[in-house]
């Protein structure tokens, strides 16, 4: 019988569709914020164990992270392959599943329950294709928590979870179909100005006002906005402005966030903000501590992978607006950006309300309405379709050596720019 791994892949995902629907509903109906996704972690890992993956729970020292992997060495299963020739390259594909929610009442207003099952579907399909056809390759599903807060992908990257992958792929739900999603890089600085307390009436000259320093910095951020790129973003809040109005503030704390579309602009903006904070401290006689607690790099879409995924989606009936339009569509930020600067990858968006590309007026992510839509049967069908296209793109990476070589060439060129 002639081998048809793509057919086997699609059949495996279709067969698992109802199971994946139940996984999605369980996660959706029990929303858990970042690093507290214990039920989602258990639900997904228990299922993946039953599907024959080697599962590492609480991976990388993160309680709610996981890694599920299947390896086929070609002709023999890895545990029966002592005498097998393993000289041929072992191409490896990763998929990401997110499953954290926003705080109530929004809950799964970003549809991460659908990201979770799209990643599982992709991994199941590729595993079946490798297994049934004895194709040499590796599939790895990464359960990455806390995308909405501080991001689980960066520490997982640093601790080796993505090591050895030829590509890492994921999708995101939205109100429209977007192939070339263009999220901004996002950084978060936690800031503390340290001054000296004194009685604000009897002896204010004895004090050093930490609030004055933060206010000076805050106003300087506003001035900087006029001189920075229109695509850049700066947001800041004061989390502690002092202890009492009749005490010169000794400690003032706050948070500064910044965003940019390109890595070099992102890094430049960070340096400008740090310079402002340090200058404000010096001008007011304070000291300042600055801690970078989050850094999401801008997304580095690999065009070859993205176009291949798009071709598979279009074969399933999806319609796209074109790269020029995609890249101007408003968007937030994601820690998948960090992954795409470490290896080839992408992060397209799929419309959860229509398989024909029709947009529901007034629908946007991070809303209660979007959370409601993320539970529908239509949303499930769109996630399964995206999971199939993900899996087929992964199969292309495994099977097509020339394609994968060119994907790597494009990635390497992007890192030299």
TrEMBL record:
MF GO annotations: dipeptidase activity
InterPro entries: Amidohydrolase (IPR017439), Bact_exopeptidase_dim_dom (IPR036264), Peptidase_M20 (IPR002933), Peptidase_M20/M20A_hydrolases (IPR052030), Peptidase_M20_dimer (IPR011650), Xaa-Arg_dipeptidase (IPR017144)
Gene3D superfamilies tied to this protein: 3.30.70.360, Zn peptidases (3.40.630.10)
Alphabetized Pfam families for the sequence: M20_dimer, Peptidase_M20
Peptidase M20 dimerisation domain ranges (all copies): 185-282
UniProt-listed NCBIfam families: amidohydrolases (TIGR01891)
Family, as annotated: Belongs to the peptidase M20A family.
Protein name (record): Peptidase M20 domain-containing protein 2
Organism the protein comes from: Podila minutissima
Lineage of the organism: Eukaryota, Fungi, Fungi incertae sedis, Mucoromycota, Mortierellomycotina
